[in-house]
Amino acid sequence: MNISLKNNDADNSGILKIEIVKADYAEKLEKSMRNFRQKVALPGFRKGMVPMGMVKKMHGTQLLVEEINKLVSESLFDYIRDEKLNILGEPMPNTTEQKELNFNTQEDFEFSFDLAFAPEIKVTLNKRDKLTSYQVIVDDEMVNKQIDSYRVNFGTYEEADDEIQEKDLLKGTLAELEGGAIKEGGILVEGAVLMPLYLKDEEEKAKFLNAKKNNVVVFNPKKAYEGANAEIASLLKIEKEQAENVISDFSFEISEVTRHKEAELNQELFDKVFDEGMVSNEEEFRAKVKEILAEQFEPQANYKFLTDARDLLIKKAGSPVFADSVLKRWLLETNKKKTEEELENEYPQLIEDLKYQLVKESIVKENDIKVEDADIEQFATRVAKSQFAQYGMMTVPEDVLAGYVKDMLKNKQTLQNIIDRVVEEKLSEVLKGMVKLEVKEVTVEEFNKLFS
Where does CATH 3.10.50.40 sit in the chain? Predict the structure, then answer.
C-alpha cells in the first residue's frame, strides 16, 4: 500500500491518495469468504458446505467491496492520526483526480480524498489590549430581599384563631345554596381548601377577611373568581364544563385556618440556611448572604468577559485562509436538509466561530491549560450546590451532594459541557493576565442591559 499527500498551501487544502494492491487485502478477503461460507445457506447444500467457487461467483464482489472500504477507512484515519494532520471536518472523496473503479475487473485500486487543513492562527495579546471585567454591586436591598426569601422558605405553618388574613389557608365544608338554604342534591365538598389571596373580586374577598375559624361565609364563586372556570372547577371538585354553569351562592363553614409564619432572624435560621455554626450573628449572616449573591453573578460576568475577549481574538486573528470548497461540500454532505443558498448565508458566521475555536485551542495549548479530574468534580459540585440553592437548600449533606454529582457525571453530554466550562474558566483567567484589565462595578440593572 502507498499513501501520499499533495498539499495546496494556497487554500490550506490537500489531496490524499491511497494506492492498494491485491497483496494488501488478499488474506483478509480470503478469511472473509471463509467466514461467509460458514453462514451462507443455499438449496441443495448443507450450511457451511457451499463450494468456495460458488461463494466467490455469487458474493465475491460484495465481499471485496466491503474489505476494500474497511481497509481504505482504517488507512485513511490512521494516516491522519499518525501524521498529526489538523484537519477540519472529514475527508471528502476527490472529484477531479479520483480514477474510475471497477471491482469486477480490477485487483489494484486508487482512492483520492480532499482534506481541509486548519490554518495556523497565532494571536499575541499584550497590555495595550483592553478588556473589561464586570462586578455586580450587591446592595442592601438585594440582601434584604434574599433574607426575606429565606425567612419565607424556612417559615412554619400554624393554626390561627383571630381574624383571617389574605394569605391564610382555609379548610372547611362548601355547600351549594338555594333560597338561602343548602340545596338538596347540590354540590357539597368536604375538606375544601381556599386562600383569600386568590379571590379576584375584592367584595367577595372581604367576606373572608372579616371572618374567623368556625364562622360560615356565604359567597359566590362565579363572582369571586370573575368567571375563571378552571379555578372554580378546582375548588368545587367538578369538571371545567360544569363550572361554566355554576352561578349559585355557596356557604363555606371554616373548620381550620392555617397561617404561614416567617422564620425569626436568629441562630436557628442561620443554621438552616448555612452549615451549623458557619455564622453566629446577623452581621455575619448578612455578609455571607451578600457573598453568595455576588458569586451567583460570576458565571454571567465570566461569560460576558469571554464574549468580549472573543471579539478581540477574532479581530486579531485577521483573515486566515480556509479550504472553503472542501468545507462547504462537507457541510452540505452532513446536513442534507440545508440548501447551498442557506449555507452561503451562514458560512461567514461559521468561519468566525471556527476562527475563535482555533485561536482558543492555540492559547490553551500555549499555556498548557489542562482539565484534571479534580477540576471536573469541583465544578460539578458548584453546579450541584447552585441547583439545590435554587430550591432554598443551602446546605446539603456531603454524601447526598457527592451522589448527585456522581450521577451528573455519568451523562456524557453533561460531562463534556462541564469540561468545556472548566476550560473556559481557566482560559478566562489566562486572558485576564495577558491584557490590561479594567474592573468595572455595575448595578444589576446595568449588568442585565449588557446582555440585551
Answer: 156-261
DSSP per-residue string spanning 292-316: HHHHHHHHHHHHHHHHHHHHHHHHH
User: What stretch of H or E contains 414?
Assistant: helix 412-434
Kindly report, as residue ranges, where domains of CATH 3.30.70.1050 are found in the chain. 2-116
Strand, coil or helix: 167: coil
How confident is the model over 237-290, as pLDDT tens digits?
A: 999 999 999 999 999 999 999 999 999 999 999 988 888 888 999 999 999 999
- The model's pLDDT over 348-384, given as tens digits with 9 standing for 90+, comes to 999 999 999 999 999 999 999 999 999 999 999 988 8
Please say whether the beta carbons of 309 and 431 come within 8 A. yes
The predicted model scores a pTM of 0.71
- 124-135: pLDDT as tens digits: 899 999 999 999
Using DSSP, state whether 425 is helix, strand or coil.
helix
- Grid coordinates in use for 252? 363555606
Write the CB contacts of 266 (distance below 8 Å, at least 6 apart in sequence). Answer: none
> Yes or no: is domain 2-116 CATH 3.90.1150.10?
no
Nearest Cα to Cα of residue 152 among 269, 278, 296: 269
Q: What angle do CA 19, 10, 82 make, to 5 degrees?
A: 40
Render 12-74 in DSSP notation, one character per residue: TEEEEEEEE-HHHHHHHHHHHHHHHHHH---TTS-TT-S-HHHHHHHHHHHHHHHHHHHHHHH
Architecture of the structural domain at 156-261: Roll (3.10)
| CATH class label, 130-146+271-449 | mainly alpha
Numbered ranges of CATH 1.10.3120 in the chain: 130-146+271-449
